[in-house]
Design brief:
Helix 4 links the parallel strand 2 and strand 3. It contains seven helices and seven strands. With 207 residues, it is an alpha/beta fold. 30% of the residues lie in helices and 27% in strands. Strands 3-2-1-4-5-7-6 form a seven-stranded mixed sheet, with helices on both faces. The protein has one domain: Vaccinia Virus protein VP39 (Rossmann fold), CATH 3.40.50.
Length: 207
């Protein structure tokens, strides 16, 4: 799906995603010391906005200009004086990541439900890892392939779904170590069973 299709989707009256952060993002990132964070394919910025509210210098990047404009508008309403800096920029996950405003890299790079075919996913992950500082974290949360048969909701195309083992395999040649790689259950209101998500945390190594 190209950016024009996502522009049309985000142009609707309601938020495409929920207001709050993804539960796994909040769980994993909550204990971390705030620094500079990049949320790739961030949509309307729900996770990046939450990061800013926790004191992070947060960059929300998406290839949809409409989504970026909406993230900027939400930030203007939500972020008070106690929040960390926030910016929303137009950027494609398949291109090198935008640099922090002060240069250098990021302490945290986040991928939340960027569902791409394997070849594209590896490109995006490589750019994301390259944007992280040595010692920084790269967190991946995505719909798992096992969700097709054992879970509920999410994309129904196995080509864009990645179990934890597949996420780890995609990073095999990158300068990272695996901190954790889990298949997690995510409750879905009204469903008879939970959704299954891959939650993988990497630490960037010296390249």
């Amino acid at each position: 799906m190209d950016s024009a299709a996502w522009d049309a989707r985000y142009a609707g009256a309601d938020l495409v995603s929920s207001v709050g952060p993804n539960a796994f993002v909040a769980e994993v990132v909550g204990p971390m010391t705030p620094g500079r964070a990049l949320d790739i394919a961030a949509g309307e910025g729900r996770n990046a906005l939450w990061l800013a509210e926790q004191g992070w210098d947060a960059t929300s990047a998406d290839f949809s200009p409409v989504a970026v404009e909406r993230a900027q508008g939400i930030a203007a309403e939500r972020l008070g004086a106690g929040a960390g800096p926030f910016r929303a920029v137009v950027a494609d996950a398949l291109s090198p990541a935008p640099a922090p405003t002060a240069g250098g890299g990021y302490d945290l790079v986040l991928f939340a439900y960027l569902q791409l075919p394997d070849a594209d996913w590896r490109v995006a992950l490589r750019h994301g890892v390259a944007a992280a500082l040595p010692g920084g974290s790269v967190l991946v949360v995505c719909h798992a392939e096992r969700n097709l048969t054992e879970g509920v909701g999410g994309p129904q195309d196995a080509a864009v779904l990645h179990d934890p083992e597949a996420v780890v395999a995609a990073a095999a040649d990158l300068a990272v170590e695996v901190v954790s790689a889990e298949l997690r259950e995510r409750p879905v209101e009204g469903a008879g069973r939970p959704a299954l998500d891959s939650v993988v945390l990497f630490r960037r190594l010296e390249s």
